[in-house]
Each structure stands twice: as structure tokens, then as C-alpha cells.
Amino acid sequence: MAMAPDVLFNLRNYFYLGAYQAAINNSDVPNLSEEDLIERDCIVYRSYIALGSYQLVINEVDSSAATPLQAVKLLALYLSSPDSKESTISSIKEWLGDAAIGNNPILRLIAGTIFMHEQDYNEALKHTNSGGTMELYALNVHIFLKMHRSDYAEKQLRVMQQIDEDHTLTQLATAWLNLAVGGSKIQEAYLIFQDFSEKYQMTSLILNGKAVCCMHMANFDEAESFLLEALNKDAKDRETLANLVVCSLHLGKPSSRFLSQLKLSDPEHMLLKRGLTAEENFNRAIQSVA
Known about the structure:
By secondary structure, the chain is an all-alpha fold.
């Protein structure tokens, strides 16, 4: 018997590759089942969150919505203001402890995402480690790489490869792992991002992927051109701005404009916590050499 077509395939792909506006614009998919409708709405609202439209999600998801949508709303609340972080975390812990909904994959995914933001990786893994969906496995890869445990990340990636080697998330996770491992693997990561850029619309995520590979290979001029292209697509993208700061320093160019923009986009960015003095030290070092 032929398998039913995956009606949300394109929508998911837009989201995975950072084409958030395209996901929103192409979300009017006909003849969806109840389950597909919920998944579609989750993708759309997560796309709005990725674009910084937290309040829209908070306003539109009401208390009668399904558990996955309530979980997405919690992510919007968590990201919308520092004041709501504590109450959001206590809500999500309460829901995870509820036997009726605690095992919902989207709830576990959102919990993992929130605890990863908190840099509480062990708490994140408590809810994501059992996997069950490609997104949860991919998040596990991401968390293990943050913990500098590429051995565990590789085990998760093998699970993904057994399920679907060609899946967009499997390819992305392979690129992340290759970047972490370094050496000759950087070129392999670059080819994955290159393949994405030939198959799909160019996004900040793909351009940043290519740029980071170039920086690892010390091709800073090429990295800069990818990053400036990404900045044209989204002037507030924190990854683009952070990568431009690093790239500019390596090229001996001033990076203060990108640092200022990063401060506006993401005052909590780790580069700002570590980096302002780093730039001063870098400038001093260059002056002392000069």
C-alpha cells in the first residue's frame, strides 16, 4: 500500500532551514486532519517566534488550544521578557509532571529549548533524551555539542541516520557535528550547506552555516560576503551579527557597529558577556604589535 503524502513536508522544511516568513506565507494547506492542523499551527507560531513576534503568539493562542500550542505559547512568553522567565519555567515543570500531557513531544521539545536557553543542559536532556521525533533527536545533538560531548552527539546522529539519512534535520545535525569535530570534516559541513543553498531558498541560517565553515578554513573574506548577504535578509539576526563581529576582528576591520546592533537584538548574547573586553584586548594586542 502506498504511503499517504506528507502534506506538511515543505512547511517543515521552510522552518528547519530558517525560511520563517515562507513557512507563514505557505501555511494555507488544504484538507488537513485535526492532528496536521495542530502541527501546522505549531510551525506557524514557532516561525512567528523566530521572527520575534512573541506578542502575536501570546495573543492568538488561547487557553482552549491543544497542549502543543500551549507549549509554543510558553516559549513565546519565556522569550518575550526577562520578567516572565521564572513563571514560565515553573509552568513548564508543572506540565511536564502531569501524567496526561507530560510526554507530549512538542511540550518536551519546548522544555528542552527553554532549558537550553537557561544553559541547564542536564535538565533539558531529562525531557529530550528519550527522543521520539526527528526534532527531539536534533535538539539532543545540539545540546550534546553545547556540552562539548561530540561522542554522545554522534550516537544521536546515528539514530537519525537510521530513521532517515536524507532528512533535512539529519543533514543539518551532520553539519553541526562536522563543525564541532573540525579538521577535514569542515569541508563536508560546507558541502551540506552548499547543497541546501542549491535546493532551497537562501536563508540567514544557510548563509551563516557557509560562513562559519569558511571561518574555520580561514577564508574570512568569503565568510564576510556570506554574512553581509545574511544581514541584508535580516538586519537583527543575532547569529549573523555575532559571526560578523568575529569575522571583522579576524579581518582587522572595526566591529563596533555589529556589536552595537547585537546589543540591541540580544542583550544577553554570550559574545557580549565575554566579548566587549575581548575586542578591547584584541585592539590593544594589534596596537602593541604595530
